[in-house]
UniProtKB/TrEMBL annotation:
Classification of source organism: Bacteria, Bacillati, Actinomycetota, Coriobacteriia, Eggerthellales
Name of the molecule in the record: Glutaredoxin
Domain GST N-terminal: 5-80
Domain of life: Bacteria
């Protein structure tokens, strides 16, 4: 499994779009740091600081926030 450094995925386990991104990570055999904003207030605060909103899924790449599951999955496919 390839590890993508400087990538952080902010998610909620009950969010269907987040589940879609997590499934894509598994199928593409990619690994990124994952932070559950429902269980970790610090993660929620970091997400707000990184992207200015609490929308998930959010993939932060080198400090830049990417939203929308379809955009995130398209990006991940380029990294596989």
């Amino acid at each position: 499994m390839a590890v993508l450094e400087n990538h952080v995925l902010y998610y909620r386990p009950t969010c269907p779009y987040c589940v879609k991104v997590l499934s894509a990570l598994d199928s593409l055999e990619l690994s990124v740091q994952q932070r559950n904003v429902s269980a970790d207030q610090g993660a929620a605060d970091d997400l707000l600081g990184a992207g200015g909103k609490l929308q998930v899924p959010c993939l932060v790449i080198d400090g830049k926030a990417m939203y929308e599951s379809s955009d995130i999955i398209a990006y991940l496919r380029t990294q596989a």
